[in-house]
UniProtKB/TrEMBL annotation:
<dbReference type="GO" id="GO:0016813">
    <property type="term" value="F:hydrolase activity, acting on carbon-nitrogen (but not peptide) bonds, in linear amidines"/>
</dbReference>
<feature type="binding site">
    <location>
        <position position="74"/>
    </location>
    <ligand>
        <name>Zn(2+) 1</name>
    </ligand>
</feature>
<feature type="binding site">
    <location>
        <position position="279"/>
    </location>
    <ligand>
        <name>allantoate</name>
    </ligand>
</feature>
<dbReference type="InterPro" id="IPR002933">
    <property type="entry name" value="Peptidase_M20"/>
</dbReference>
<keyword id="KW-0479">Metal-binding</keyword>
<dbReference type="InterPro" id="IPR010158">
    <property type="entry name" value="Amidase_Cbmase"/>
</dbReference>
<feature type="binding site">
    <location>
        <position position="207"/>
    </location>
    <ligand>
        <name>allantoate</name>
    </ligand>
</feature>
<feature type="binding site">
    <location>
        <position position="85"/>
    </location>
    <ligand>
        <name>Zn(2+) 2</name>
    </ligand>
</feature>
<feature type="binding site">
    <location>
        <position position="185"/>
    </location>
    <ligand>
        <name>Zn(2+) 1</name>
    </ligand>
</feature>
<keyword id="KW-0378">Hydrolase</keyword>
<protein>
    <submittedName>
        <fullName>N-carbamoyl-L-amino-acid hydrolase</fullName>
    </submittedName>
</protein>
<comment type="similarity">
    <text>Belongs to the peptidase M20 family.</text>
</comment>
<feature type="binding site">
    <location>
        <position position="266"/>
    </location>
    <ligand>
        <name>allantoate</name>
    </ligand>
</feature>
<keyword id="KW-0862">Zinc</keyword>
<dbReference type="Pfam" id="PF01546">
    <property type="entry name" value="Peptidase_M20"/>
</dbReference>
<dbReference type="GO" id="GO:0046872">
    <property type="term" value="F:metal ion binding"/>
</dbReference>
<feature type="binding site">
    <location>
        <position position="85"/>
    </location>
    <ligand>
        <name>Zn(2+) 1</name>
    </ligand>
</feature>
């Protein structure tokens, strides 16, 4: 079946009626439906499905074993996300298996399709949760204690769906089986004007939480001069983030989430949490974050508030494997090499195994939002390239 046909099968799963688009998060009904769909599709193709200790789902063509050729992506989304970021890579992997079956291809080494858990960090805040746990780059105790917006810990959420949070942790034997990893992904900006591009690098990227504390109070009776309103330094910090990014070469800084407590229209907040996402193609995000923090401290002090900074995740810059990129270039002659400022499981794996990415053109240039798109013909071109790359090393 075509990748687009497969995506159509899950078009109604996890729709977010309030925000628009999709909200597909770890340990929710939507995620469970998507896992069931993937398991069924894998079984139809004769693949053997297993879920690893970190909730990543692997579908094996041939017995699981060493030097495997692995492809896949994720099925979770950001809040109110599009239909392609993640699912396109999973659907394309299944479609590439169909393509290889139709070619009569018999893998000489194991081939697997993987679905990584909670790539977006949409529920528990840390991106690439499943691949980071697998590779040991996220501590399992820290992961178990991560909380969602309702205060539910990851351990509680996994237990509630019948999982075993005590099993979370590095999985070196499984990782050692992966000979190479290729992720097909929708392009997430305006950088690609041909159907398919080849991933070159991922920029450095981190997430920080700033928590401002003031004094909760009455919106009507509290004189302006008596207020310690944490929303004031929070607002100044949003503007400081834009200024700090503009001062640094090529950097991007975003505040996409801001939560006042208690969150009443007629209540001066007692505290405000905001999340800062910083990405830097040259150098590390540190100096941009320091710049924002200095402004946050100054604004907090002026309002009689305090501010605390917590780093939630940090990934260094990633360079994908040259040999794998060369194989992709042979599969898609003329495809441009493309850096990306989006995070991916392929970037986490790249520190451990040869990894690479194929990007499929996005005509809207919009991602992490419902307008994200890929044209059917471009997807077909990407799937053919993926099938060629998966087939080549096993011949
Ligand atoms: C994930 O897609 C990210 O780049 O935030
Ligand atoms: Mn994403
Ligand atoms: Mn993605
Ligand atoms: Mn009242």
């Amino acid at each position: 079946m075509s990748a687009v046909g497969l995506l159509r099968q899950i078009a109604d799963v996890g729709r977010d009626r309030a925000r628009g688009g999709y909200s597909r998060h770890l340990a929710t009904a939507a995620e469970s439906d998507l896992r069931d769909w993937f398991t069924e599709q894998a079984a139809r193709r004769g693949l053997d499905v297993e879920t690893d200790r970190n909730g990543n789902v692997w579908a094996w063509w041939g017995a699981p074993g060493d030097d495997a050729v692995v492809t896949g992506s994720h099925l979770d989304s950001v809040p109110g996300g599009g239909a392609f970021d993640g699912p396109l890579g999973v659907a394309s992997a299944l479609a590439a298996v169909d393509d290889l079956l139709a070619r009569g291809f018999a893998p000489a080494r194991p081939l697997a399709v993987v679905v990584f858990a909670e790539e977006e960090g949409g529920r528990f805040g840390v991106p690439c949760l499943g691949s980071r746990l697998l590779t040991g780059s996220l501590d399992a105790d820290r992961a178990r204690g991560l909380r969602d917006a309702d205060g539910v810990t990851l351990a509680e959420a996994l237990t509630a769906r019948g999982g075993d949070p005590s099993a979370l942790g590095p999985d070196p034997e499984r990782l050692a089986r992966v000979g190479r990893f290729v992720e097909l992904h929708v392009e997430q900006g305006r950088a690609l004007d041909v159907p398919v591009g080849i991933g070159s690098t991922i920029v450095a990227h981190g997430r920080w939480r700033l928590s401002f504390t003031g004094q909760g109070n009455h919106a009507g009776t509290t004189a302006l001069t008596d207020r310690r309103d944490p929303m004031i330094p929070a607002a100044a910090t949003v503007l400081a983030a834009r200024r700090a990014a503009a001062r640094a070469a090529d950097a991007r800084a975003t505040v996409g989430r801001l939560v006042p407590t208690p969150g009443g229209t007629n209540v001066i907040a007692s505290s405000v949490d905001l999340w800062l996402d910083v990405r830097t193609p040259s150098g590390e995000p540190g100096p941009v974050v320091e710049d924002v923090l200095a402004a946050a401290r100054e604004a907090a002090a002026a309002e009689g508030c305090t501010v605390e900074l917590v780093r939630e995740s940090l990934s260094g810059a990633v360079a994908f494997d040259d040999a794998l990129a060369a194989r992709m270039a042979a599969a898609v002659p003329g495809a441009p090499l493309l850096p990306t400022a989006a995070g991916h499981d392929a970037g986490v794996l790249a520190a451990h195994v040869p990894a690479g990415m194929l990007h499929v053109r996005n005509p809207t240039g919009v991602s992490h939002a419902p307008d994200e798109h890929a044209e059917d013909d471009d997807v077909e071109r990407g799937v053919r390239a993926l099938a060629d790359v998966l087939a080549e090393p096993a011949r």
